[in-house]
Amino acid sequence: MKQIIAALNIFLFLALLSSCNTIEGVGRDVESVGSTIEETAKDSK
Fold first, then answer.
1. Which candidate among 18, 27, 28, 44 keeps its CA 20 to 30 Å from the CA of 2?
2. Rg (CA), the chain
3. Which residues have C-beta within 8 Å of that of residue 24, sequence separation ≥ 6?
4. Rounded to 5°, angle at Cα 37 from 34 and 39
5. What string of pLDDT tens digits covers the 45 residues of the chain?
6. What pTM does this model have?
């Protein structure tokens, strides 16, 4: 029983770790889009 609980804990930890990487990637994408919009706005002045 302890082995099953340990395996589930490891699985949950890895799932949380991968979701953090996904959120970080989305943050980078949003930042990139924001920078592009900012540059376009400066160029159009």
1. 18
2. 20
3. none
4. 110
5. 888 888 888 888 887 777 777 777 778 888 888 888 888 888 887
6. 0.52
The one-letter amino acid at 21: N
Two tokens, residue 27: 């943050």
Residue with tokens 């770790």: 17
Q: DSSP labels for 1-45?
A: -HHHHHHHHHHHHHHHHHHHHHHHHHHHHHHHHHHHHHHHHHHT-
Phi, psi (5° rounding) for residue 38? -65, -45
Q: Alpha carbon of 6 to those of 12, 13, 15, 20, 37: distances in Å?
A: 10, 11, 14, 21, 47
